[in-house]
């Protein structure tokens, strides 16, 4: 029987033997990440920063390192399962999935935002959350939302959405939303108000634990390079 599709990847021996893979998230974080990568000595192919590029895997000026560009939620999955050995991932994703295969040695201090609860502005301050026993919540963070409300003795009925969370209360889909907030402008534009911050979020350097154990010099070397890049940035 062919087991090639069911055999998990060995983080120590990726598809291109000897090549390390760094997973980074698509979107706005790329521009914030670019100076840090440069200080760490990582220079991906020019189309890496082009959101219109259809390529997902990019060589760098280091023949032993490739960069893959994936959805923010998928970075942790790629690293946890050994498809990538290093990654840059928001703390929100780590909170949501809580992979035990991931070690997060460094807070990179970029991608600052927060996971927050929001509700229609006309209801904010008029209801008493301490009297709730159950509430409907639209979110892409079901685990974070359920843990948050369970800690308050409230059962959260979660409606999972991957976007347009702000529409849920006005269309009767959910009373509240739990979402990632940066400036709050989108909430305000859709008649919502941020009522509680669950967690402040920054991006973290993450590594696969097995890769760290089997290739400690290589993985440890990259951690040291990112640490030095952070120190260089703070010294400016």
Structure, described:
The protein is α/β, with parallel strands linked by helices and 236 residues long. It has two domains: 126 residues, Periplasmic binding protein-like II (D-Maltodextrin-Binding Protein, domain 2); 88 residues, D-Maltodextrin-Binding Protein, domain 2, CATH 3.40.190. It is 28% helix and 29% strand. It contains seven helices and eleven strands. The strands form two sheets. It has a six-stranded mixed beta sheet, with helices on both faces. Helix 4 links the parallel strand 7 and strand 8. Helix 1 packs across helix 7. The radius of gyration is 20 Å and the shape is elongated. Pfam families: HisG (PF01634).
List keywords for this structure.
2 domains; D-Maltodextrin-Binding Protein, domain 2; six-stranded mixed β-sheet; disordered N terminus; 11 strands; 236 residues; alpha/beta
Protein topology:
Layout: E1 20-25, H1 29-39, E2 57-59, E3 65-70, H2 72-80, E4 86-90, H3 91-97, E5 102-107, E6 113-120, E7 134-139, H4 142-150, E8 155-160, E9 176-181, H5 185-189, E10 192-201, E11 203-208, H6 209-214, H7 216-234
Parallel strand pairs: 1-3, 1-4, 7-8, 7-9
Antiparallel strand pairs: 2-3, 4-11, 5-11, 6-9, 6-10
Helix pairs in contact: 1-7
| Assigned CATH superfamily of the largest domain | Periplasmic binding protein-like II
Supply Rg: 20 Å
Whole-number average pLDDT? Answer: 90
Query: What structural class should be given to the helix and strand makeup?
Result: alpha/beta
Ends distance: 58 Å
Order of helices and strands: EHEEHEHEEEHEEHEEHH
**CATH architecture call of the largest domain:** 3-Layer(aba) Sandwich
Q: Fraction of residues in helices? A: 25-40%
What's the shape?
A: elongated
Instruction: Please mark out the parts with pLDDT under 50 across 5 or more consecutive residues, or reply none.
Output: 1-16
Indicate how many domains the architecture comprises: 2
Number of helices: 7
- Write down how many β-strands occur, each being a DSSP E stretch of 2 or more residues: 11
Protein name: ATP phosphoribosyltransferase
GO molecular function, one term: ATP phosphoribosyltransferase activity
Subunit structure: Heteromultimer composed of HisG and HisZ subunits.
Keywords: Amino-acid biosynthesis, ATP-binding, Cytoplasm, Glycosyltransferase, Histidine biosynthesis, Nucleotide-binding, Transferase
């Amino acid at each position: 029987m062919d087991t090639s599709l069911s055999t998990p990847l060995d983080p120590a021996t990726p598809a291109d033997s000897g090549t390390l893979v760094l997973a980074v998230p698509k979107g706005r974080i790329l521009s914030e990440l670019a100076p840090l990568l440069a200080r760490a000595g990582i220079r991906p192919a020019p189309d890496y920063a082009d959101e219109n590029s259809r390529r997902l895997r990019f060589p760098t000026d280091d023949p032993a390192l490739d960069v893959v560009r994936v959805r923010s939620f998928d970075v942790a999955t790629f690293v946890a399962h050994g498809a990538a050995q290093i990654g840059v991932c928001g703390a929100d994703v780590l909170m949501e999935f809580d992979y035990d295969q991931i070690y997060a040695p460094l807070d990179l201090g970029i991608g600052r935002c927060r996971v927050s609860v929001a509700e229609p502005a006309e209801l904010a301050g008029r209801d008493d959350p301490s009297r709730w026993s159950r509430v409907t919540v639209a979110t892409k963070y079901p685990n974070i939302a359920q843990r948050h409300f369970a800690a308050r003795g409230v059962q959260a009925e979660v409606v999972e959405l991957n976007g347009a969370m702000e529409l849920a209360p006005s269309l009767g889909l959910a009373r509240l939303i739990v979402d990632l907030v940066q400036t709050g402008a989108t909430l305000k534009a859709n008649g919502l108000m941020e009522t509680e911050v669950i967690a402040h979020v920054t991006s973290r350097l993450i590594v696969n634990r097995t890769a760290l154990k089997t290739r400690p010099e290589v993985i440890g070397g990259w951690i040291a390079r990112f640490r030095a890049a952070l120190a260089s940035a703070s010294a400016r």
